[in-house]
Specification:
It is built from 9 helices and 5 strands, in the order αααββααβααββαα. By secondary structure, it is α+β, with helices and mostly antiparallel strands.
Length: 193
């Protein structure tokens, strides 16, 4: 087991310290319900208070932490602050995100904005077959089958996953840019998944 010395404020509650340890060890965002299982007596309300305490700890400008507590992808995660991302990526210390093709990004955008949606509808909107692209998005865990449509053959319906939210640093789908903002957002942040 990896043990790393971290310095936490002696003023932090025991629950905040426990959450800090769990978030440090996790590879993915952890939901409040899952965090509450660490200390069932605290409940979700207690976890929320401890998360607020932990976030205040990491946001304290005098402490100058290089990591921050972020809510995204349906949970909470300790992440490196954005200002250090370029240096860490340049040194190839962290796992490098895989890039998506323009076709994959377009398909992902159609699914994100129109979900739940069937393959035929995505193909109608894009004007091309998307079978291979859709398979890639499912393999990467960005979209998944969320149900079946009514009608002939009951085709599969696709929607985005918590990993999609995590990769795009979103807490929920309502944070997606409006359609008129999307073109600007894609130009500013090229395909880096």
């Amino acid at each position: 087991m990896l043990r790393v010395r971290t310095r936490s404020s002696p003023r932090m509650t025991a629950l905040a310290k426990l959450l800090e340890a769990a978030l440090f060890a996790a590879l993915r965002p952890i939901s409040e319900a899952d965090l509450a299982r660490l200390e069932p007596e605290a409940g979700v309300d207690g976890v929320r208070r401890a998360l607020d305490e932990l976030r205040a700890h990491y946001d304290d400008p005098e402490a100058g932490h290089a990591v921050e507590l972020v809510e995204q992808g349906g949970g909470w995660q300790l992440l490196t602050r954005a200002e250090y991302a370029e240096a860490i990526e340049r040194a190839q210390i962290a796992e490098r995100p895989q890039r998506l093709t323009a076709a994959a990004l377009e398909t992902l955008a159609v699914i994100a904005y129109r979900q739940p949606i069937g393959r035929a509808e995505v193909e109608e909107i894009r004007g091309v077959a998307v079978g291979g692209v859709l398979k890639t998005l499912v393999e990467r865990g960005l979209v998944d089958v969320v149900g079946r449509a009514e009608g002939l053959g009951r085709p599969l319906l696709y929607g985005t996953t918590p990993r999609f939210l995590e990769q795009f640093a979103l807490r929920h789908l309502e944070e997606l840019p409006r359609a008129d903002e999307l073109a600007v957002a894609l130009r500013a942040n090229p395909a880096t998944l």
